[in-house]
Amino acid sequence: MNKNQAGILGIGSYIPEKIVTNKDLEKIMNTSDEWIVERTGIHERRVAADDQATSDLATEAARRALEDAGIGPDELDLIIVATVTPDMSFPSTACLVQNNLKAVNAAAFDLTAVCSGFVYGLAVGSQFIQTGLYKKVLVIGAEALSRIMDWTDRNTGMIFGDGAGAVVLGVTSPGCGILGIHLGSDGSGGDLLKVSAGGSRLPASLDTVAKRQHFIYMNGKEVFKFAVKIMGDAANKALENAKLTAADIDCFVPHQANIRIVQSAAKRLGFPMEKVVVNVDKYGNTSAASIPIALDEAVKSGRIKNGNTILLVGFGGGLTWASSVIKWCKG
Ligand code: UT7
C-alpha cells in the first residue's frame, strides 16, 4: 500500500451567470427546443461574459476548491489546467491562474485531452502526490467553448457551454482517494472532432477565417457511436484497475455530452439512473469542465457522501477517453 495515497481534499466549481436557452438558439440557427431536448437532453447552457476568459472561470473554481480544502494558495505545489480553450496559445492558462491566485510556490502547465482532460489531469496530478514529490496539486477543468463555437451551425452550436471545476489533490487515508485510473487514446479518429486552424498546420489567415476553420467541427454521428462504446469499456478498465466491479459503485459521474450517451452507458454498466449524476440539461457539454462541475454539485447536494465509491468516465476529441474510481473520504 502506498503511504502517499492520493485523494481529493477540496472541490469547487464556477458557472457563468449568462443563460442561453434553446428558445434563444431558435432565433439564431435553424433548430427547435423540441429537437435539442429530444436528441441531447439539453435545455440551456451558460456562456461566459464578454470580459471573462477561461482563466477567469478557472480561477473562481480554484478559489472555491482551495476554500473547501481549507488551504492557502501558497501551499500549492502544482497547478494543472485541462482546457481546449486557453486564453491564448501561451502563456498557459495554468500560469495565468497561478498569478491570479498568487500561488507563488506552484509549478503550472496546461494539459490537452479535450473532454477527457479533467480525468487525465487527475491521473497526472495524483502521480506527483503518490511519488511524494508534491503535497498539494490543483487540477482544473475549464472551458469557454462559446468562443470557438459556430453560433450559426446547428450541428455543433446547440451542444456546448462554458464553466469550470477544480479539485485539490493531496495525501488521504489508505483505502481512500483514487483507487483506479484508466487512460486511452486513438489518434486515428482525430478528424471527427477538431478545430482545424490557428495552429502550426493552418495558421490564422483571412482564408481560414472565411472558411470558419477556427470553430469546432464535429462528426456527431461517429462521435456518438464511439462514445457509446468507449464509456462502458473505459469504466470497466478503471474498475478492473481498482479491483472492483460495477456493483461496488454508489455514484456514476459521466462526461455530460448528451443524455442519450449517458443513458446508454448507464444501461450497459447496469446502473439505475438514480445512481447517475446528470446536469447536461442545465449546462450542455462543458468539455473538460463537465465532470468536475457534476462531481462538485453531487457532493454539495449531499448526493455523494463520505465513504461512497464513485466512478468518473470521460471521452472526447483526440480521440481520448479516461476513467477513474474514487473512494470519497473527504471531510
Ligand atoms: O464531448 C464529446 C463531443 N461530442 C459528443 O459527444 C456528441 C455526440 N453526438 C451527438 O450527441 C449527436 O450526434 C448530435 C446531438 C450532435 C446529433 O444528433 P443525431 O441524433 O446524431 O442527429 P443527426 O446528426 O443524425 O441529424 C438528424 C437530423 C438531420 O436531418 P435529416 O438529414 O435527417 O433531414 C439533421 O440535419 O436532424 C438534423 N439536425 C437538427 N435539426 C434541428 C441536426 N442538428 C439539428 C438541430 N436542430 N440542432
Question: Can you give a write-up of this model?
Answer:
The protein is of the alpha/beta class and 331 residues long. The chain has two domains: 6-175, Thiolase/Chalcone synthase (Peroxisomal Thiolase, Chain A, domain 1, 3-Layer(aba) Sandwich), CATH 3.40.47; 178-327, Thiolase/Chalcone synthase (Peroxisomal Thiolase, Chain A, domain 1), CATH 3.40.47. It is 32% helix and 24% strand. The chain has ten helices and 13 strands. It has helices at 22-26, 33-40, 54-69, 93-101, 117-130, 206-210, 220-241, 259-269, 280-283, 290-300, and strands at residues 6-14, 18-21, 44-47, 78-82, 107-111, 137-144, 162-171, 177-185, 193-194, 217-218, 251-254, 309-316, 320-327. It has a five-stranded mixed sheet with strand order 1-7-6-4-5, with helices on both faces. The protein has a four-stranded mixed sheet with strand order 8-13-12-11, with helices on both faces. β4 (78-82), α4 and β5 form a beta-alpha-beta unit. α3 packs across α4 and α7 runs parallel beside α8 (259-269). The chain is globular and about 55 Å long. Oxa(dethia)-CoA (UT7) binds next to α2 and α7.
List strands and helices in order, with pairings.
Elements: E1 6-14, E2 18-21, H1 22-26, H2 33-40, E3 44-47, H3 54-69, E4 78-82, H4 93-101, E5 107-111, H5 117-130, E6 137-144, E7 162-171, E8 177-185, E9 193-194, H6 206-210, E10 217-218, H7 220-241, E11 251-254, H8 259-269, H9 280-283, H10 290-300, E12 309-316, E13 320-327
Parallel strand pairs: 4-5, 4-6, 11-12
Antiparallel strand pairs: 1-7, 2-3, 6-7, 8-13, 9-10, 12-13
Helix pairs in contact: 3-4, 7-8
This protein binds oxa(dethia)-CoA (UT7).
